[in-house]
Design brief:
Layout (H helix, E strand, L loop, with lengths): L2 E3 L2 E3 L7 E5 L16 H13 L4 E4 L9 H11 L2 E7 L8 H6 L2 H10 L3 E7 L7 H17 L3 E4 L6 H11 L7 E4 L7 H10 L2 E4 L13 H10 L6 E3 L6 H6 L4 H14 L1 H15 L6
Helix pairs in contact: 1-2, 4-5, 10-11
Family: Belongs to the metallo-dependent hydrolases superfamily. Phosphotriesterase family.
InterPro entries: Metal_Hydrolase (IPR032466), Phosphotriesterase (IPR001559)
GO molecular function, one term: hydrolase activity
């Protein structure tokens, strides 16, 4: 098992303390003027993160959204922080319709995982459901994951549709649950859904607190504590999900270690913090790459 980074494969034990969901580069027509496209700023984020003990960042920006794979490699090399890049596709609204019509997602994803430098696949739901685009992309992601073992990171719109995703990916399409990382669960703090998702064997990523989704921030640690008490500490991940220039100014990648990790240690204990920030990411992002 190896983890594929933008600078090559590493052993899972070498990943270290990891922000399991963030963005160093991102561009979308839905967020004009908020682009993350400055390599110097990205490197500064990683240096600050490393200064707090951070060793790795999973960068969930998918194909066609300004992920700047060469710049990811440059900032990783310059800072010594491992970077896991994503292939995949976000919601259709982020792309030109003509591009989506021309793409063959299954071939694209496999190519970027095996001949490119991607180490995971990013997909996305609609709000409270899976539209035709989501089903097409998830079907392609399942094909690519089943061929390579690559993990699939799922943007759950406002934290919804987690169980629908598991029914499709793991039920109908045969993806092992431990290859699925459900993102943004903090945005819909439903304990019943969280427990069901954890019981499936999928990983649960809590990507907050965040500037945009502050209404659910107060539920974050209650959700983590409930899952830990139910015996699911080994399913938990935490990331910052910095998607805008203004969010980077206010919080940014270092926030996960500056604010969240100390509180996890205080409330859940040091062993849980090690699991959430080190042990679990090393398992979640490892794959038997062909």
């Amino acid at each position: 098992m190896r983890i594929r980074t933008v600078l090559g494969d590493i052993a899972p034990g070498d990943l270290g303390v990891c922000d399991a969901h963030d963005h160093l580069f991102l561009r979308t027509p839905l967020l004009p003027g908020e682009e993350l496209d400055d390599p110097a700023a990205a490197a500064a984020q990683l240096r600050a993160f490393a200064g707090l003990g951070g060793r790795a960042v999973a960068q969930w920006t998918p194909y066609g959204m300004g992920r700047r794979i060469d710049d990811l490699a440059d900032v990783s090399r310059a800072t010594g922080v491992h970077v896991i890049a994503a292939t995949g596709l976000h919601q259709a609204a982020h792309y030109d319709a003509g591009l989506l019509e021309r793409l063959r997602p299954d071939a694209l994803f496999v190519d970027e995982l095996t001949r490119g430098r991607a180490g995971m696949i990013k997909v996305a739901t609609a709000f409270h459901g899976l539209d035709a685009h989501a089903r097409r992309v998830m079907t392609a992601a399942a094909t690519a994951s089943n061929a390579t073992g690559a993990p699939i990171g799922v943007h759950l719109e406002q934290g919804t549709s987690a169980l629908d995703v598991l029914d499709l990916l793991c039920g109908a399409l045969g993806v092992p649950p431990d290859r699925v990382i459900l993102g943004h669960l903090n945005r819909s703090p439903d304990p019943w859904v969280h427990r069901r998702a954890a019981e499936s064997g999928a990983y649960l990523a809590f990507d907050g607190p965040s500037r945009t989704h502050h209404a659910t921030d107060g539920h974050l640690f209650a959700s983590l504590a409930a899952l830990a008490e139910a015996g699911h500490t080994d399913r938990l991940l935490i990331g910052g999900d910095t998607t805008t220039a203004s969010a980077r100014t206010e919080l940014g990648v270092p926030h996960t270690l500056r604010a969240l990790r100390p509180r996890v240690e205080r409330q859940l204990g040091r062993e849980a913090a090690t699991a959430i920030f080190t042990t679990n990411p090393a398992r979640a992002f490892a794959a038997p790459w062909p």
